[in-house]
């Protein structure tokens, strides 16, 4: 068939090109084996050749009941099964998946159902080939082989069913969706797999095989559909039932372990499915209960009694007391190491996503050898308390802990013994049992990891205390948690699995952990949740530091450090008592010099997490300032490399006084005045190694070679974090860091170049932060401008220019544009003209690049430059920038348009600034046609683009409407675009867009109202503008939008710009209603803006009163005569007595004193203004009296509150 025709090898290597094009799966046509008969001639024997020969013989056979036929077929099957398909030899032939499928289909035609011994041999061959060669069967072959297997289950004797199911499990691996027509017979009511996997099945091996088949059915591959939910539910219930059931009597331990392992693997596949989302409820609690039970399965000295369901609670519960089993000493496993027992390496490469659990357990012997060779030995009969580091040694440097710790510092698997209490067979069986028990624990952890990924974190955190330790209680045994496994399990793979689960729980937990706090005085009556959570975090730090000190496996050690990094990234250290990071800091230093590259990289990742966690932290600042040798991590670099290397292991002991390796060296100089972490990272990036630091890269490292690329990249990231969070500590080395970045840019490795560019950008941003108006850095402690100028001169004369012009590396060009945008404006002014011209010319050129990220970065940098004082008054530069921005606003990329809209907003900000600083000269020189084009482009972006573009387009529209002069508005070409621009802003205020768009739209309308040339009050759009702002101030659920809309309503300075009396009355009623309801918020988070909203509403209402005319008084008096009068009175009185330091909204450029006396003086002026009206109608006079009476009551209340209390 077409699917099995010979195809060229993807790898290009010679292969057995079998021609199976004439095979007909629906008939009995003879096989064509052209090219296969002589395949072995002149060739050394190998799996590919033998496979071809056997297939040729299979094709030459016809089905028969003769004994000779059965014998020959049996020998062929044996030969195919006995081949070592993992062996390497010269001129090997690759066996293709379609070749395997064709052979199995041909073999299935030769074996009849009544030949049960051959049926078994064929099933063994199917399992063996699919498992060893990691083949997923194609669809035509799959239908034939699955149909054969299901019929064999119905036709053959029960004693053959285990082998048939084993073959079926290999067939359905990754092919679950293709089994649709067979699922009723397999998983329906009374289906084969349902019957054989039920608890009533007496044959445990048959039951295990059926469960393994169910697990493979649940496996989903990327891009393929999963099983229907009804069948998935059957599988879930079956797996859960097996995991909940007690161990049957008289069952072999290893068979039971294999059953549990298959059930856990099936549950993992189920949870990995797209529809396997679990919610809070009985199923989740039941699943977590059984997973916790099997996470400790087979661990010596732990007897965990779990309930059937775990319920979410913030407090620890349902924990049984761990009891040490008092079995005889003969159960202690042998811990001697056989000198001649070398670990067998796994042969061949896995081609499947999860080959270990796919088709079988063919690598068990290699894993057993690995367990025997593991430095951690399982056993010891150690009690629970002997596996933890006591509080006396918690938090001490590793060198101190090694000198003072009792022998129980390291668990029992760290202390080897040469005496074996078993005979060899007995010890071998115990080792094999421990291996299978470890696999069960590992399967439970993998399943738990899948559950963490498919359950919402907020639901999962309800079970936090069941898996994460709380603060230890005096007199009570410690709880059994994930940290217990990381500290005590003898298998390094299980320990690594528990750390992966813990890392997944900690990832993204910042919001949940932010509730932790223990800085206040301790409470005696009860313990708040915040304190309980803080205690849990402290215990996590303590336990993971202990795991760091005790771990001997490099792979697991990497997981420990990664878990610590996740913890540091999410813990609110500002709300906890200091000291946690100091302990961690003291322990992690030696691991930067570890021989394993992955450990070194993860150690640097952890250091980066520390310096970036809620930076700047005073505790971290002090640690960074400590000189080497003062007990910090820097001091550890000059001592023994790690606690593991300082302690004898496997006959090799590390020197007690060992010179630091080249990975941990520090540059020469005065270390007292330098940040040691800065020195370390710089040396890792630019200085060559004297000796190889890792066994893995020692062979490839030439003398004088630099650190491996992952180490250098991580060191550059740590430098970037250090500059971002603690710039004041590194600013003295500004020029040195600039040279480091330049050296990185000169290299050929794109990753090194990018990280070097990122470091340069962080340096520029750090300087800008120091010179911001709200910076807390005093002038004397800032980097001098002359030094900043020198820094940028060296940068611009270095390899940055080449990076800007490197079209083959657009990502580097993008980063280089970002670097140019981080130049300090004061320094840019002092740069030579040629340097300024270089920056401007390159950015203008790159703003027309065909690459979208480069174009976006260049346009953004121009948006930064247009705000520079030395450039914003240059009409030609502003015009060139405007043309570039307008071109980018029409780009297909949303990211480019968003950056262009932001730059357009900055450019229009420059126009407003120039109105005040330059005056009419700049306005007259600026092109009217360009201004009109900007107005139309901004309006188009506001009406029909994405919200991220609209948010800045409306800001630009507000500035442009503010900038327009009477000469512009008198021209017919501007009248239409001006009306469209105002309508666009009105629609943006009313729209359902993001709150940022609506906030900016309100701000833009207020900005436009400042233009006295705008026909506000007489234009047709006036009523719509005020209606949109009134609706926003009363109905918008976001209080920041309400504040900005109220501020916009207070901008017009003349009464006639508010329209007629009816329009004025609508505004007044809307503002009064908004003030009365200012405490009503849909979202609790909006309450923090209530004070600011009331302040702005009172200010706007008073502004309207100051402009009020006699015709407006009836509308103003109406709310003051209703039930809302007491609330309005209270808010006005509070506004006039408030100091103005709390909840003060933005003034929109209007300077107003916050002193109560000045506010009251302003209120008295308003009262005088209202009293000064001439003759009025009786109705108006009554309204005037009500308004004046209300204001006088407010004045009286304020004066009474300010009066001193009488003394008695």
TrEMBL record:
Bias kind Low complexity: ranges: 627-641
Taxonomy, superkingdom: Eukaryota
Record domain DUF4042: where: 439-620
Any Pfam family hit: HEAT_EZ
Basic and acidic residues bias: start-end ranges: 351-360
Compositional bias ranges of the Basic residues kind: 340-350
Region listing for Disordered, in residue ranges: 321-428, 627-670
Record protein name field: HEAT repeat-containing protein 6
Organism per entry: Scleropages formosus (Asian bonytongue)
Organism lineage: Eukaryota, Metazoa, Chordata, Craniata, Vertebrata
